[in-house]
Design brief:
343 residues, alpha/beta, 6-stranded antiparallel beta sheet, 4-stranded antiparallel beta sheet, 12 helices, 16 strands
Length: 343
């Protein structure tokens, strides 16, 4: 084996020992995710998260200092050496590492594709909320969402995420930008965690497919309703246009007929606004939107491709609130006079 740290050499090594055997050998870890004291610096309060990422590889993130990466990066930090030197040491210890059982316990969300919702089967998920901070409001304002709407929509910033399974609780610090959405289906609260800049746990959801975001805020009657593919987009549409909006848990979900029938009795015009995946080979947002509209005779609308923005929040970030409001109101069929906005 050539002793370098090139990807092909790492793949050769991982055919002999797993990433879990490596971190178990050097750090004594027996389950994922976990939080330990950072082994490469003084760390009185454990702040190093180790977890299995969406790509299947074990990753780490130093919640206090911001360091992140894969196993070899962590070893390089521990040993204050280059990745190539860390790889050579791994090779020297290979016979001992192979003796470590490759049996990891998974006590939290572990795998899935980027952007998908990751409910962990068999575990409960809870959070610790914190106070709103200026950077939170700045983030949401760029998405076209106002402070007042955050207050009424059961959206909260969080500091800690807890996973509870078989009476055992594990925890991990939430990202700097981390929020929980609370919904009430038949009076029962469920939560969905959103960490917009996370590279491993962007979504953690305990909503099932029957939950509609912002459903409890919808008025009893109305002229227009917009159905989006995400809560963030529904919040943006509602704030920019004053039009009641709700969202499914995914673009591919098809609501039950009686739910759509109920909405049609309450709203004269129902619009479906999914992503315009204009820069992809297959425009899945358009495809799923057209399917839903054909199924239930709804109005399909989408962000015009000329704006190069796939959804309402992107439109707001890319072109500003004023233009986004004008474009969205035009799509829905609303007058452009801002005095007409009911909020």
């Amino acid at each position: 084996m050539i002793l370098t740290a090139r990807p092909d050499d790492l793949n050769s090594l991982y055919r002999i020992v797993s990433e879990f055997q490596i971190i178990s050998y050097y750090l004594g870890i027996t389950e994922l995710p976990c939080i330990i004291n950072a082994p490469y610096r003084p760390d009185r309060k454990p702040s190093l998260s180790i977890f299995q990422g969406m790509d299947g590889h074990i990753r780490f993130k130093d919640q206090a200092r911001g360091d992140s990466g894969r196993v070899l990066d962590l070893l390089s930090l521990m040993w204050a050496c280059t990745a190539q030197e860390a790889f050579r040491r791994l090779c020297r210890d290979l016979s001992d590492i192979r003796r470590v059982p490759d049996k990891k316990k998974l006590s939290g969300p572990v795998s899935g594709k980027q952007g998908s919702s990751l409910p962990h089967q068999g575990s409960d998920v809870r959070v610790k909320t914190r106070d709103w901070r200026p950077y939170d409001y700045e983030f949401w304002e760029k998405q076209g969402v106002d402070k007042w709407f955050l207050d009424i929509s059961n959206t909260y910033p969080i500091s800690t995420i807890f996973f509870i399974r078989e009476g055992k609780t594990t925890s991990m610090p939430a990202d700097k930008y981390a929020y929980v959405y609370v919904e009430f289906k038949d009076g029962n609260p469920t939560i969905k965690i959103y960490q917009p800049f996370s590279d491993h746990l962007k979504w953690i959801s305990k909503h099932d497919r029957s939950v509609w975001d912002l459903w409890t805020l919808l008025p009893e009657r109305g002229n227009h309703l917009v159905i989006t593919s995400s809560r963030k987009d529904a919040m943006c549409v509602w704030c920019c246009t004053g039009t009641p909006s709700t969202s499914l848990q995914g673009e591919g979900y098809v609501p039950k007929p009686h739910v759509i029938s109920s909405l049609k009795q309450r709203f004269e015009n129902i619009h479906v606004l999914f992503d315009n995946d204009f820069n992809k080979e297959i425009n899945y947002g358009r495809m799923y939107s057209e399917k839903l509209c054909d199924e239930y005779s709804l109005h399909q609308i989408e962000i015009p491709s000329l704006y190069k923005s796939k959804d309402p929040s992107d439109l707001t970030k890319n072109h500003g609130r004023k233009l986004a409001t004008r474009v969205l109101r035009d799509m829905i069929g609303l007058p452009q006079d801002p005095d007409d906005i009911p909020f």
